[in-house]
Amino acid sequence: MKWLFVLFLAIIIFGGAAWFGYNFVFKQDIQVAKEQRGEVAPEPRIDLSLPEFEAAAKLRQEGKIPEARAALAAFVQKFPTSPHADEAKDLLGEVNIDVFLSRTPSPEKEEYVVKGGDVLQRVAHKTKTTPELIMRMNNMSSTMLHIGEHLLISHPDFAIVVQRKQNLLTLLNHGGFFKQYHIRELKLPAKASAKVSTKVAEVMAWRDGKRVGFGTKEFIGSTRWVRLASQSYTIYSVPDSAHAAVQPPPPQGIGIAAADVEELGSLVNNKTQVTITD
User: Fold this and answer.
1) What does the pLDDT read at residue 270?
2) Does residue 164 sit in the same domain as residue 269?
3) Which of 189, 198, 222, 258 is most solvent-facing, going by the fewest CB within 10 Å?
4) Same structural domain, 268 and 175
């Protein structure tokens, strides 16, 4: 009887050890190996960020723009690796533009009263912005100003960061995220540097193969390019749903949707810093 008890005890001890080793050591290794071979689908992970993203997106759908702006900015900061982070940045960029290019009051805008002798170019230079930005922000259909007219003026400090491998062009304002644009074409020089630091040289407008000037009737609906000081790069227009025909692209450059270049061109000037990285 004594040997039966010893045998029974041994079975319990060694059996328990085997069960523990299988479940807590070997079973996990076997499961990982099967997942790597594609034999077993990995267990679905709970997306903790989804409720906050949906709540922020709903605010925008409801037209609660300031609240949506704050919620999306908080989401991007809180969940930088979320599967919805890129979509949240796209939405945040659209909301930022909705606020920025309108007469919607916001902390970054101030009022300017037109004085005698003011012309649009002079007001833009005086207030350190661009003529087209003033026009778009104030829903102006011409460059004509009227004494006593109240204009909303913003003082942005835009910078552009191009991430070539991610096909993203990000617009920063005072160092913080403002909007991102998705690159559709990328034509690099044969030996592109890993990092290029440059700035905007000029915003160009084309109509029927010819350069046109700001304020002319040909300027409206023209194809825009943003030429950089580095001769290897021009941000040029790629046809989109609103622009079927555009100026043929340059030999080298960064292609984004024509509507995006039109928008970007109204925001930047020849002091805008540009960084291009891998």
Assistant:
1) 84
2) yes
3) 189
4) yes
pLDDT beyond 60 at 18: no
Q: Map tokens 């949906």 to a residue.
A: 54
pTM of the entire predicted model? 0.77
Amino acid at 199: K
Could you give the number of structural domains in the chain?
3
Neighbours of 54 (CB within 10 A): 11
Is 45 within the bounds of a domain? no
208 located within any domain: yes
What's CA 34's distance to the chain center, in Å? 38
The string of pLDDT tens digits covering residues 184-240 is 999 887 777 888 899 999 999 999 889 998 878 888 888 999 999 986 689 999 999
- Mean pLDDT over 57-76 rounds to 91
Candidates 265, 228, 232, 237; CA nearest to 251 is 232
What is the number of residues in the chain?
Answer: 278
Does any domain span residue 141?
yes
Q: What are phi and psi of 194, to 5 degrees?
A: -65, -30
The pLDDT tens digits for 37-60 are 666 555 666 778 889 999 999 999
Instruction: State the residue range of the domain holding 59.
Output: 50-100
- pLDDT for 41: 58
